[in-house]
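User: Predict Phage transcriptional regulator AlpA's structure from this.
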Amino acid sequence: MQLLKLPEVLQIVRVGKTTWYTMIKQNEAPAPISLGARAVAWDSNDIENWINKRKAISQKN
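Assistant:
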């Protein structure tokens, strides 16, 4: 498992910060892992799985 900080995640998923956090709030994107006071990160496997799931959905349509 590799932990990704927000700038790395946004570079991978290519959405803005506000959009990303809106997607998390709406349970459309993986939630971050709390690392302590105001520090969060995402598991790279969660991001990869999320991308693959979205690809599969878009290919069905």
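Residues 9 and 42 are 8 Å apart (CA to CA).
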